[in-house]
Every structure is written in C-alpha cells, then in structure tokens.
Design a protein that fits this description.
The protein has about 90 residues and is mainly alpha-helical. Helices cover about 65% and strands about 0% of the residues. The chain has helices at about 1-30, 30-55, 80-85.
Length: about 90
C-alpha cells in the first residue's frame, strides 16, 4: 500500500511538472523580455547587413526574422527542467 501512495504522489508531481512545462513556452513567447531580445537581435542583424552592404555595394531586402518558440511536447521534455528552474523548483 505504501508503494501505491508513493507512485501516486510521483505521478501527481510529474503531472504538475508537465502542466508547468506546457505553460512555460507560452509565458516566454508573450514576455516583454523575449520581445525585446527579438527586437534587439533584428536591429543588430540589420546593422551588420548595412555594414556588409557598404563593402559589396548591394543591400538585399532585409526583413526582420520571426522567431518562434515551439509548444511543449514530450519529445522536447527539456522544457520540464527549464520550467522547474524558472519556478524555483529543484530538478531531480
């Protein structure tokens, strides 16, 4: 009986971790910090391309990159560890 209780508690903990992991990519995608990082990356990329264009006398169309973070799947379960770290939980 004690083993069943331990298994149920561990299963509950895993389900909680999965819920946190599923929410984490969405939280990052919608965060101000992530948006600022994407904007800064695109600005730096544009500057570097402009410098390069001076040497080759040609500037191709420069479009901002759209950076997408994938949703959680069990295959990319490293999100569980990231979500736990972000939530201040110890990862086993």
């Amino acid at each position: 009986m004690e083993l069943e209780g331990k298994c149920e508690r561990r299963l509950g903990a895993l389900q909680e971790q999965e819920a946190i992991a599923k929410a984490y990519p969405r939280q990052v995608r919608h965060s101000t910090r992530f948006r600022r990082l994407v904007k800064a990356y695109n600005e730096e990329r544009r500057k570097r391309l402009m410098k390069m264009a001076k040497f080759i006398h040609f500037l191709p169309p420069v479009h901002d990159l759209i950076i997408k973070l994938p949703d959680f799947t069990i295959d990319n379960s490293c999100w569980i560890h990231s979500a736990d770290s972000m939530a201040g939980r110890r990862v086993a």
